[in-house]
Each structure stands twice: as C-alpha cells, then as structure tokens.
Amino acid sequence: MSRWHSAVILIWIRAAAMFVAMAIAVPAAAQSRAKWQLEFAVGGGPSSTSPTTTSDLPGAGSAFTTVVDTPSRRIPSWYFGDGAQLVNQVNGALGVASRITPLDPVFQRTFADRRQGAMFGIRLSRAITRRFAAQFAVDYGLGRLQVSGPAVAAVEAARVSFVPALSALIATGPFTAPSVTSTSTIHEKGGQQIFATGAFDINFRTSSQAKSIPYITVGGGAKIRIGETPSASLDGEYRFQILGTNPISETDKVTIKSSVSDGAVGVIGGGLKYLMSRRWGARFDVRGFIGEETVRTLLDTRSFSSTTSPTGASASLTSPAVQFSNGGGVSSSLSGQQLAGFRVFERHGLQTQIDMTAGLFLRF
C-alpha cells in the first residue's frame, strides 16, 4: 500500500470518528438552529474526454562509418524506431528471416486509459440563508489509469521478437558463446484522483417545514493525481565473444511511462436532500467535474556497452550495417543519445468525471 493510500485511509478514519462524536455530542434541540452540515457520500460514475492527440518518434540516429568501412547509425535502442529499422534492414540484407517487432504502435495511441471506479466524498457545508449554502468537498476517486490491451500486446510482441532477431544477427558473424535475453515488466494500473472543491448549493425550497429539498450545485476547485501512473519496461541483453577472444556485452533498457496533469475543475450538478429528523438527513446527488486534462506517454532509454579487455569491434558487411564494440575508441551502433522523458504521445482535451452519489449527513 502506498503512502498516499495510507494517508487517505487515515483521513477517513479520523473523519468518521469525528462524525460519530458529533452525532453523540450535539443536543437535538440545537438542530433547529443548525447552520452546519457534515456528510459522507459514496458513489461513482463514468469519465469521458474530448481529445486532441499528437504523436512523435525520436529521429534517425547520427551516421558513422564502421571498422569495415560500411555506414551505420548510432541508435538508443533496438526495441523501437530507427533501432528496430536498422537491425531489420541488416537482417534482411543478410538473408535472415527474424525481425524485431517495434514498439512504435504503442506511441501512436493512448498508452493508458482511465477506468470507471467508485468515489468517496467528505463534504462540509454551512447555510448562509435558507436558499444558499457554501460547501467544501473532498472526493476521492478509485478509477485508475490502466494500460490498454493493445499496448500490453505490443510490449509483449517486442519482447518476444528481440531474442530471435538478435540471435539470428549474431549467428551470421564470427562470434562464439552467444547469449540473448529479453524481459518485460508492466505496472498496469495507477494514478487515482482527488477532487478538492468549493461550491454553492442553491435550494429550490426554503420552507422550514420542507422535508425534501431539491437543489443545484455550482463551484470549482482542483483535480490532484495521487499514486504512481502505469508504466512498462523492456530489458534486453546479449553477450558473445569476437573470435573467442574479445567479449561483447550490451544492455538495452526501455521504459514507457504514462503522465497525467493536475489542474483546475469546474463543478456543476444537483440533487435532492431529505431531512429524516432535525439531526439527520440523506442526500442523493449527481455532479460533474469538468476540466482540461493532458495525458502523455513518455519514453526513457538506458542502453550501454561494457568495456572489457581485450577491446575489439566487428561490423556487418551490409549497407546499412550494425557494429558491436567493447571500447577502444570504437563506437557500437547501440550508442545513440539516451532519451529521458521524451514525449512520444499526448492527448489533450476536456475531461468530464461524473459522480453519482448517495450520502448521509449530520446537521449541527
């Protein structure tokens, strides 16, 4: 359990204790003069976004000439974009059938979507007049971002294809004792939301004898993300020796992360309050939290070649070519500029979170 979740649970326990204590302590006679109202509410509802989307892949790596005078490119990873294209081009030129299935489709659509979940609310309001009341509310939504099915499938396809593609490429060279691995880790869910808002309740009935009171709610506040957002990582590694003497060991790490913005929201809704006694009442409420939301897919790479003596390098006799190296001033093809938080996809639009709740309130 994360620290955020522990903090939210602690707040709820303390608020519930205060709620019970107030219910016991407040004399019934005082309810005729009640100005304050404390409510616990539970419910949920769907979320929708009217999006504008953009996507972008890192550009081609910088060119260099290999030790056998063939052209190659410096790439940050074999798993996507120019790196996957390069190894597939070389395998094709060498007559090798195995290909890497690139991650590129993951970067052309939303990596994670928000799923529907329950919402819990604590709402404190104070009557200004019989018609108007000011309200402060904190609503905690359990609806989380979740990695989409197509994204999970694309990550798995890239992971599975890495080993046969690199193994087949290595098998064409003067290499011995090859070992190739590829693993993935997916954190599928995360990124719940808290809505902290202030609003006015406008009652349609103002009679002191009224038991049922319809109303509308208008206000605004902030939407705050809590918890880690979904992510996926791929770790590829290969080792072999050039002519049994020069050890090559290269690691290819890719991390895909979902990022969602905080921001302001407007609140509009309405419902019905029912007074069961001078002290207790029930509320049935529907409200919408409306605000701009930006969801991004971010890409990190951390790939490197080990430098181990004796140094050496080997490159394919193709155009373009792949070069492997363990130092000595000679570059490996897997030596492109590393990426940190590179935005490969963005969805921006107006998000509407519907919250349909039932609550019990105490007047004091």
Strand order of the largest sheet: 1-6-7-11-12-15-16-20
H-E string: HEEEEHEEEEHEEEEEEEEEEEE
Amino- and carboxy-terminal Cα gap: 35 Å
**pLDDT below 50 for ≥5 consecutive residues: which ranges?**
19-32
Shape: rod-shaped
- Mean pLDDT score: 90
CATH class: Mainly Beta
Number of helices: 3
The assigned CATH architecture is Beta Barrel
Question: Largest sheet at a glance?
Answer: 8 strands, antiparallel, barrel
Number of strands: 20
Helical content stands at 10-25%
Would you tell me which CATH topology applies?
Porin
Topology:
Blueprint (H helix, E strand, L loop, with lengths): L2 H23 L10 E10 L1 E9 L7 E3 L5 E3 L7 H13 L18 E3 L2 E11 L4 E10 L3 E3 L1 H23 L3 E13 L1 E2 L1 E12 L8 E15 L4 E12 L3 E15 L2 E13 L4 E22 L2 E2 L7 E3 L7 E3 L16 E22 L1
Antiparallel strand pairs: 1-6, 1-20, 2-20, 3-4, 5-8, 6-7, 7-11, 8-10, 9-13, 11-12, 12-15, 13-14, 14-16, 14-17, 15-16, 16-20, 18-19
Short description:
By secondary structure, the protein is an alpha+beta fold.
Which keywords apply here?
eight-stranded antiparallel beta barrel; 3 helices; 364 residues; alpha+beta; rod-shaped; three-stranded antiparallel sheet; Porin; single chain
